[in-house]
Specification:
By secondary structure, the chain is of the alpha/beta class. The chain has a single domain, classed as 2-Layer Sandwich (Nucleotidyltransferase, domain 5). The chain has five helices and five strands; from the N terminus they run E-E-E-H-E-H-E-H-H-H. It has a five-stranded mixed sheet with strand order 3-2-1-4-5. The model has no long low-confidence stretch (mean pLDDT 91).
Amino acid sequence: MRVLGVDPGLTRCGVGVVDGAPGTPLSLVAVDVVQTSPGDEIATRLLGIEVGIEAVLDAHRPDAVAVERVFSQHNVRTVMGTAQAGAVAIVCAARRGLPVALHTPSEAKAAVTGNGRADKAQVTMMVTRLLRLDTAPRPADAADALALAICHVWRGGAQARLAEAAARTRTQRRTGH
């Protein structure tokens, strides 16, 4: 499975593509940060993020997209920008018919480090180790995007199977079969 992980942000939007399957070694396909200028209008910034994500989708053709789920922060402006950048990634994936998963930061941290409260340095170290990289991905947004992709490779298949089973159960209850 090839997964694009997106760590949304208006100024720096981390994007990382990983190949792998549960129980097999992971491999790095690509990692980058889409950057926009804080001085630009919001529409221009969101368009820049869309262009960057579309380029990654065109170049690497992932099977799924994993986006960081926005969580409550103290700074409302930061939350809004993060949510808007995340929505752009979701729309880009939906336009191509790609499945989208949202993972919380603590889910991604737990997947790669075993600790949902791991700090950025621990996440970066484990991403580097899991992908067998010579150097750590920088900045942290890039490592976080890779952590989201890894999280989805390892957990996404199970989540999809659970959702399918729940849907079958609902259908069986409605139809009596």
